[in-house]
């Protein structure tokens, strides 16, 4: 950590050049003898990334940022704040705390937060930033989280862990057992020290795979922001042996779409099918990740277009955790027909369709954008169809 970056003149330069071409800065000689051009660019890039992801950090003075790769791996402020709704009590230990976004969120709910990270540089950066953010109840220790646990001799209310999804060669890994630290092999230690464990995993982890590897899972939370799944949270309670509850959340600008269920509900549900009716329903990304495909049809009284399409339809308009569209027309997969209908510009989505969006645009001569939405899918009679729609915006 180069403390010279926190000098008033350097901070002023960073703020004044947020919209400057970073290549010009990188190729120019730094105005500051103790701060290199690369360090300036690194701070500018990371601060720009924080503008939407971490607005509290962006708007605070004298924040020190790590490189943008490290920042990209941290929680967003929205998802970090959501985690605070899952914990209770007075103390939580963040075993792999990194930049400290989750630790800071927990500090607003818990009396005492222990921020652990074996990266001494990150630990020092986090400690500095917590002071700037007036978070006095966070204890920062530059040490290995598992080693800290082994030495702990008092009960711990909550343990939070976000295993790194990169291996020693910095390549992405997708299975829990490949993450670092390995929560599977260390679960006995975790449950020995605390009855409440919260694990964050990446959005690509398969739920069934996770349930096979983890024990005592009480709840699974699939968290999306603006229809993009950001993380999966696994709430583990010592000695819990019942079926876990699955919760899906899609944080929108002005509301949150929520849906929850048990896997047995999905297994025992039956889908109802039809050709496209007056309205089309597209589940949000968190729902699609959850796999609650038959249950949605039964729960919302909707008709599925095909067993593998995951698009739903109805004659009447219903509230739904996803996007809703008014059907304007249903056509065969034909350029001639769409041209006749005057459709030359549209937003295209594929569901259970053999061609990619790029190939469809080329074949049909459709430009991107506009108010029209085209769903390219397969119907219950195995026909390739195109559904032309206009989006309906639901009340929050």
Automatic annotation (TrEMBL):
Residue ranges constituting the THUMP-like domain according to the UniProt record: 322-380
Any Gene Ontology biological process: methylation
UniProt keyword annotations, A-Z: Methyltransferase, Transferase
One GO MF term attached to the UniProt entry: methyltransferase activity
Keyword Methyltransferase on entry: yes
Domain PG-1098 ferredoxin-like: 279-321
Superkingdom, taxonomy of origin: Bacteria
Stated name of the protein: Putative methyltransferase
Organism: Maribacter spongiicola
